[in-house]
Amino acid sequence: MDLRARRLFGGTAIAPGDLAASPFRVDRDRIVSSPFFSRLGGVTQVISPGGSGLLVHNRLTHSLKVAQVARAIAERLTADERYSGLIDELGGCDPDVVEAAALAHDLGHPPFGHLGEQVLDRLARQRLGLPDGFEGNAQSYRIVTSTEIRRATTIGLDLTAAVRAALLKYPWTRHSYPTPHPRHLDPPPRGASAPPGDPDSGSAKFGAYTTEVADLVQAREPFAGRIADWQQTVEASVMDTADDIAYAIHDVEDFHRVGVLQQGSVATELIAWQNEAAELQKLSDVELEAGPRRPGRAVERLRRHLHRKDAWIAHDEAFGAAVEQVRHELVDGLLAAPFDGSIEAEQYVARFSARWTRRLIGAIVVVPDPPVRSGHVMLEQAQWHEVQVLKFVHQGFVLARPDLALHQRGQASLLTTLVEALHAWLLDPDEQARLPQRLHDLVELAEAELEAVDGSASGPERSVKARGRAVIDFVAALTDSQAVALLDALSGRSRQLWTDAFVL
Q: Does the keyword field hold tRNA processing (predicted)?
């Protein structure tokens, strides 16, 4: 069987005679037809739409824009004669595969953005006894292979091997696959390290739970011998890079629209570093941390962080040029006038986004032997630094805001209470007949999966883990508003009996 055929199989609906029928477009259609995809319209990207007062990106619009950028990158690379032979050697790069993977990459993202991911992971590991915990990328892979039922005879979305492999930004499990596990490499791949302060918890980011590892291996089998076990496929690398680009650009748009990204504070920080870079670089780490709020020091900490984490590409001259480019385009450009909702303001935002998107897509290259912390598809050095500085702006001037922290602490408390309440309901022997049918189904699915991967586990132990996984799967599939409504019902606060049933 040739490479193209092997990239297709695993989508069991595809017969050998159908190889010319664009099965990757079928994959894309299956993804966008899934209720899990529609649900993303009610899931937070960074700022909860309900609390912002203005239209901001949600996980659905983010996924659509990632797909747009990813397809543009794939089409440019496949048309570039410099890379055609190399891409073929690495396993191929089909724009339809890349687009489908980009559309599906956030299907498993839970309510309330990355905060929800952190809360569910903590609860899964510490409260429900699930060694794999929760991870948004692994949950997306679980949805397309297990929990989303497309028809009575199919578990998952029945996607081709190539699209499933392209979904795997982090093609390893939390603890055990592959061997040796990539977190033991020096340096480890991006995302493979354990979270700070939790060295025994396995990788911070991973692409599949233990229950889906056999599917992971099957999806990546066509690429064996072409890329390392822990390395992304070219198509996954394109999708990952597109996600980075969209995150860096489009989230800045949101923060500008909402009015929380202020020109003065960003300008003060960037210009102070530019004026005092030589003096700041002479400070020891201890001296630098002694005045963390003094202008310019946060940028200097970023420069040092990049050298520690990504010495393979970090470069002081490129970093300085990136600070200047972002200051010119963002501070002196986009943020120069407050967003007032006018047509002119919208046009300015659109031009800013289009200009940066073109700039970054045009700086994509393919390399045969990438550094461990990069994929085969990567940004050139100058633009890589620009993306890091853009991310720094919204992390430092939005995500660190006390008012956002206040909002997120409430959301974390809500999710914690919801998981605890559902788990208690599941354990109540007098309520078994009145549990939501989907929760019943998820318990049965998890029981069967756990028995298949760990037949040595005792029945009671397996049941405990199955109930925990079912609760996590159930909550992760809610929208923000559904999570709020369900907790209101379970807490007795809701006065509308039947309208709460839509989440059950």
A: no
